[in-house]
Each structure stands twice: as structure tokens, then as C-alpha cells.
């Protein structure tokens, strides 16, 4: 595939788009025209698809299209927020400054996603290890003990009978269950991506989880507030800015709330009142925004609220990770210990009889 060809570009990662935006910002700040900067990026030896995208953008802009309109030809790379900010930057002659804000916004979101993955990695790995060890004991160790117990000809304790029943259940249904789980694991991401109702149901379920729901709500509200604050700081009218927040939070509940808030604002309601009405924003978000509306400092307050929420989310993630690690280890120890005790109870009872 040639750089800047007309074929459909392959999928790109979020960090590739961020790197492209950072590079474009630097070239514009160095004094290059937009088309020249895009053509320069198009001929760089990068391994991702962004040189191809840059070439397509350069051709469209050279043909007379505005930058934001050219971006719309690549919706997988440039979301609505990106295009809305670019429109403002191009109209006001501050495209480099706006692109720098986009880079900052995307990098903050990437850092937050990285912290979330890091916090979940160890507990999930230990939990998977616990499941694997327990399944191995039930599938390979318990049947061996069962043969020994059958030779005793004596009644087995209730815990031992329960473990043997679990072993038989695993041996009978384990392969089919594993195949079904693997199929579900592979199909679920596709279902969530392509079935809006499934995605909405999953997002509602995440918000309803007792402990994790508050964290998910805080993270989504922080993304919403930072995106809206960035748009307002760039000069976007409030109602128009809300229309651009259709896919910035990663949660369909908040994305739908943006649309409902926009409708209420166009009817004459204040932002804080509309946020209370939709019912998904934490109270600590709504009250400062109500004050900021009176002082005409809404964009600054939104960015401050986002920063505080991100800090709160980081603290909750750190606490959850610190609590989850020993908890998972304890659960693993209890599970293995219970199996061992259940298997050795008949041996102990037989020794007492002898």
C-alpha cells in the first residue's frame, strides 16, 4: 500500500493518532502550512497507518476542503470532539493551539486507561491462577484420592463427598464449559461493539456494581467534564459543545445524558439543573458547576472538576489494588486449603479408627 493511496487505511491505535497530532502541532508551530505539514508526515517512515491518513488529508485540503471536513473522512481515527475542536481552531486561526489541547486531552485519557489496566492486571492474574490451580486439583488429584477412598469401603465425610461431586461435574462438563466460555469471551467484544443495546446494558451494569460502579462513574464524569471544558475554552457554545460529546466518556449512559442535557439547555434550563435531572453525575460535580455558571467561569471549573475527579479515581484505584492483592491471595489459599483438608479428612478419620 502506498503512502497516501486511495485505499481504505488499516485500523490505527489511539496512541498513533495522538503521536500524529503531536507531530502536526510541532510542524505548525515551526511555521509550515497545514498541507505542507501533512505531506511531510505522509512521507515519514512510520509503521502505523497515519502517514496514509495524512496523505489523504493533504489531498483533500489541497482540493479545497476545510481541515475538519477532511477529518470526517476518517471517523475511526478522528472522533467528533477532535473534529469540533479542529473546526474552531481553523476558524480562529489557532489550529496549532487547539491541536496541542487535543494532545493533552488524549494523553491524559491514555494515562488513566494505563493506570486502570495496571491496577487490574495483578488481581486478575492471581485470580486466573487460583481458578487454574483449583481446576487442576479437581481434575487430576481428586480422582486419584477417590480410588483410594473406594478401597476403604467406608462412608466419606460430607466435605469430601462434595469435593468428589465437584470433580465429577468438572470432568463431565468442564471441556464444554471451557469451550462455551472461550466462545463467549471472543464474541462479547464484537457484540458490545456492534449491538448498541448490549453495550448500553453492559454500561448500566457497570455503574450498578456496588464498589466498582462509583469508580466507573467518577472516571466517566471526569472525561465528560474535561472534554466539555476543553470545548468551552476553545470558544464552542455550550449547547454545540454538548452535541460533540457523543462518544468521549466510554460509557453510553453518560453519552446519552449529554444529548438529554443539550435538549434541556435549548429549552432554557441551566447546565447544573440539567445535570441533576439526568441523574448520572456525582453531586460533587454538579454543585461547583452551579456556582461557576453564575461567575462565567464554567470552562475553568469543568477542567478543575475533571482534575479533582481524576485524582480521586487514581486514589481509589490505588486503594482497590492494594486491597485486592492480599484478598485474592487469601481466597487462593482458602480454596486450596479447603480442598486439601477435604481430601485428607477420610485419611485422618481412618487413622483415628485404627
UniProtKB/TrEMBL annotation:
It is a multi-pass membrane protein. Signal peptide: none annotated. GO terms for cellular component: plasma membrane. It is found in: Cell inner membrane. Residues 20-143, 224-346 form the Type II secretion system protein GspF domain. The keyword Zinc does not apply. One of its GO terms (biological process) is protein secretion by the type II secretion system. InterPro entries: GspF/PilC, T2SS_GspF/T4SS_PilC_CS, T2SS_GspF_dom, T2SS_GspF_sf. The chain crosses the membrane at residues 120-142, 162-188, 317-345. Keywords: Cell inner membrane, Cell membrane, Membrane, Transmembrane, Transmembrane helix, Transport. The keyword Kinase does not apply. It comes from the Bacteria. Belongs to the GSP F family. This is Type II secretion system F family protein. It comes from Trinickia dinghuensis.
Amino acid at each position: 500500500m502506498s503512502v497516501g493511496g486511495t485505499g481504505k487505511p488499516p485500523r490505527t491505535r489511539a496512541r498513533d493518532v495522538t503521536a500524529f497530532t503531536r507531530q502536526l502541532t510541532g510542524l505548525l508551530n515551526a511555521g509550515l502550512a497545514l498541507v505542507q505539514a501533512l505531506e511531510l508526515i505522509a512521507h515519514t517512515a512510520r509503521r502505523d497507518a497515519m502517514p496514509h491518513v495524512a496523505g489523504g488529508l493533504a489531498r483533500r485540503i489541497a482540493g479545497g476542503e476545510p481541515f475538519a471536513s477532511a477529518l470526517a473522512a476518517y471517523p475511526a481515527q478522528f472522533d467528533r470532539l477532535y473534529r469540533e475542536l479542529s473546526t474552531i481552531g481553523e476558524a480562529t486561526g489557532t489550529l496549532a493551539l487547539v491541536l496541542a489541547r487535543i494532545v493533552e486531552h488524549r494523553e491524559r485519557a491514555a494515562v488513566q486507561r494505563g493506570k486502570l489496566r495496571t491496577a487490574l492486571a495483578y488481581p486478575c492474574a492471581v485470580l486466573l491462577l487460583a481458578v487454574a490451580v483449583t481446576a487442576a486439583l479437581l481434575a487430576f488429584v481428586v480422582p486419584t484420592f477417590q480410588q483410594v477412598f473406594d478401597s476403604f469401603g467406608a462412608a466419606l465425610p460430607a466435605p469430601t463427598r462434595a469435593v468428589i461431586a465437584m470433580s465429577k461435574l468438572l470432568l463431565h462438563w468442564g471441556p464444554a464449559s471451557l469451550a462455551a466460555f472461550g466462545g463467549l469471551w471472543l464474541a462479547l467484544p464484537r457484540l458490545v461493539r456492534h449491538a448498541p443495546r448490549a453495550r448500553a446494558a453492559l454500561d448500566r451494569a457497570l455503574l450498578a456494581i456496588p464498589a466498582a460502579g462509583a469508580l466507573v462513574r467518577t472516571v466517566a464524569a471526569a472525561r465528560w467534564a474535561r472534554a466539555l471544558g476543553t470545548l468551552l475554552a476553545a470558544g464552542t457554545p455550550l449547547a454545540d459543545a454538548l452535541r460533540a460529546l457523543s462518544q468521549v466518556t466510554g460509557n453510553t449512559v453518560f453519552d446519552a445524558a449529554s444529548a438529554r442535557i443539550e435538549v434541556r439547555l435549548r429549552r432554557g434550563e441551566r447546565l447544573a439543573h440539567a445535570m441533576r435531572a439526568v441523574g448520572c453525575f456525582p453531586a460533587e460535580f454538579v454543585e461547583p458547576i452551579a456556582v461557576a455558571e453564575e461567575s462565567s467561569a464554567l470552562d475553568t471549573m469543568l477542567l478543575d472538576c475533571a482534575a479533582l475527579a481524576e485524582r480521586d479515581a487514581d486514589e481509589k484505584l490505588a486503594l482497590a489494588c492494594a486491597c485486592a492483592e492480599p484478598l485474592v491471595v487469601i481466597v487462593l489459599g482458602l480454596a486450596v486449603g479447603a480442598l486439601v483438608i477435604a481430601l485428607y479428612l477420610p485419611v485422618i478419620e481412618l487413622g483415628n479408627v485404627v
